[in-house]
Amino acid sequence: MATHSQKDAYLYKKVITIGTVCELTGLSERQIRYYEKRKLIFPERSERGNRKYSFSDVEALMDIANKMEDGMQTSELRKEMQKKESKRYDNKLRERMIRGQLNAYFNKRD
């Protein structure tokens, strides 16, 4: 049976072209490139230099566009993204520590 992360792996594969992203989001190539320049989105590049996006990038772009429409500045969005990433890192670290403590406890009992 596939794990949760394996099932969601397709969300993060960078396989979508900028043209398709434009169709999916309603954003122009210029807007998408601007968000990349402002370090809000991080596409990969193909061997030919074409941008490649994932489904999670598409979701992020839609979220960015909605927040920009509501008046948020790109600097505010970047700070928000950094806070989320920091929180995600802290949660993973906490999870590893707890797992380690549980392993140590149960291994000590054997």
TrEMBL record:
List, in alphabetical order, the Gene Ontology terms for molecular function in this entry. DNA binding; DNA-binding transcription factor activity
- Which SMART domains does the record match to this protein? HTH_MERR
Indicate the segments forming the HTH merR-type domain, all copies. Answer: 15-83
Note the Pfam families from the entry: MerR_1
Coiled coil ranges? none
Q: Which PANTHER family match?
A: HTH-TYPE TRANSCRIPTIONAL REGULATOR TNRA, REDOX-CYCLING DRUG-SENSING TRANSCRIPTIONAL ACTIVATOR SOXR
Q: Which UniProt keywords apply?
A: DNA-binding, Repressor, Transcription, Transcription regulation
Species of the source: Sporolactobacillus laevolacticus DSM 442
Q: What is this protein called?
A: MerR family transcriptional regulator
